[in-house]
Amino acid sequence: MSKATRQMPEQSGQASVARGEARCDLASDEACGPPLEHPRTGSAKQMAGTGGLLEAALTRQNLQIAWKRVKANKGAAGVDGLNIEQTAQVLRTSWPDIRQALLAGRYRPSPVRKVMIPKPDGSQRELGIPTVTDRLLQQALLQVLQPLIDPTFSDHNHGFRPGRRAHDAVKAARLQLRALR
Questions:
Q1: Is 59 helix (H, G, I), strand (E, B) or coil?
Q2: Most CB atoms closer than 10 Å: which of 1, 12, 87, 114?
């Protein structure tokens, strides 16, 4: 059995080409060492106590935008059986408790409802449907975190990013191949 070795990042400010390694381009984040951790990351309790990201996600304005997006998606009910309109009714009374649990680090999302979706070949695949409340919270967090995290990704990364598709990745790869010829 071969022994696994850990790759060491290049020395800061030095770009080189190693055997089997991609060139570390200082103008790009490709093939370089790991990015530095964002200084405002931390646990829910740390973020809640410092006026951080969690509190930004839970602002009224951010939650209203998140609610509009969740509502526009017209998703099915989760394990709680509550659709969007029913969830809106429940949130009117239970939101202060949910918010407090989130800020205290005690909130636990509900299990997802498993649904089997038919595939064209006749088989099925599993789909997990979160509750509308959990989808709301996920969307609210996404709206705060994505603008901070997305710029740290490589321009060559297309997976699960807004405005990028698999077709864009294929197009970029073809352009790279043409440039190498």
A1: coil
A2: 87
Q: Give CA–CA dist 161/143, Å, rounded.
A: 13
130 occurs within a structural domain: yes
How many of the other CB atoms lie within 10 Å of CB of 66?
Answer: 22
Q: What is the DSSP letter of 10?
A: P
Using CA atoms, how far apart are residues 23 and 17, in angstroms rounded to an integer?
Answer: 5
> Which tokens in the block code for residue 35?
């990015």
Tally of structural domains, the chain: 1
Could you tell me the pTM of the whole model?
0.64
Query: H/E element holding 96?
Result: helix 84-104
Give me the domain span that covers residue 63.
Answer: 44-149
Nearest to 142 by CA among 69, 71, 88, 34: 69
